[in-house]
């Protein structure tokens, strides 16, 4: 069976990149990230949990109203490679159903929790029509609170046309990630990058 494609970045002729967030929506942190993007007229892609979509539909609706994209990040954030193929399918199906119920739009990409996958999961993603989205700046480990300077510096080293950058807006203290975004977004725009959604970036892929 055909496997879904995995993207860490997109080969593009345009000066575009995508900033993505995992684990929301979160009522404390997500609105603070949204304010930064609103200030600079930029867009992001949020890989959301089905459980958090259920808990915080109002936050999700604001994200959608402000033009951001939603990606599937599973229903309950399990280690997907440890699940059966049927369980993997159910995780993606439940999350997709909730996203559609809350914002009326189907997600078009998937990011596996912990970035873990196996052949079964890639086959399931292909059935859903989901490319699998990773990122270039994984060494930031922003979820582990390594310091704002570390997050910014590691990310800067991975900035180029077509980069996919990963941060977290859900669970725990996201203050360092927020501080890094407040530095990086205006900096990237000043450098001439346009911050777009994953779907917009994928649409510019060249061979």
UniProtKB/TrEMBL annotation:
InterPro entries: Glyco_hydro/deAcase_b/a-brl (IPR011330), NODB_dom (IPR002509), Polysacc_deacetylase_ArnD (IPR050248). It comes from Paenibacillus lignilyticus. Residues 15-196 form the NodB homology domain. This is Polysaccharide deacetylase family protein. Pfam families: Polysacc_deac_1. It comes from the Bacteria.
């Amino acid at each position: 069976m055909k496997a879904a494609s995995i993207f860490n970045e997109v080969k593009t002729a345009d000066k575009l990149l995508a900033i993505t967030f995992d684990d929301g929506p979160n009522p404390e942190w997500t609105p603070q990230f949204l304010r930064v993007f609103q200030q600079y007229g930029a867009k992001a892609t949020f890989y959301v949990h089905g459980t958090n979509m259920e808990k915080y539909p109002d936050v999700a609706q604001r994200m959608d109203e402000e033009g951001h994209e939603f990606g599937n990040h599973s229903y309950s954030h399990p280690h997907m490679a440890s699940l059966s193929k049927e369980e993997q399918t159910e995780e993606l199906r439940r999350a997709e159903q909730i996203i559609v119920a809350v914002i009326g739009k189907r997600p078009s990409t998937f990011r596996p929790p912990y970035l873990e996958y196996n052949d079964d999961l890639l086959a399931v993603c292909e059935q859903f029509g989901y490319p699998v989205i990773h990122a270039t700046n994984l060494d930031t480990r922003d979820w582990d609170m390594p310091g704002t300077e570390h997050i910014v510096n590691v990310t800067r080293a991975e900035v180029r046309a077509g980069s996919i950058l990963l941060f977290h807006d859900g669970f725990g203290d996201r203050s360092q990630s927020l501080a890094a975004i407040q530095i990086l977004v205006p900096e990237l725009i000043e450098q001439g990058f346009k911050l777009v959604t994953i779907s917009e970036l994928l649409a510019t892929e060249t061979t």
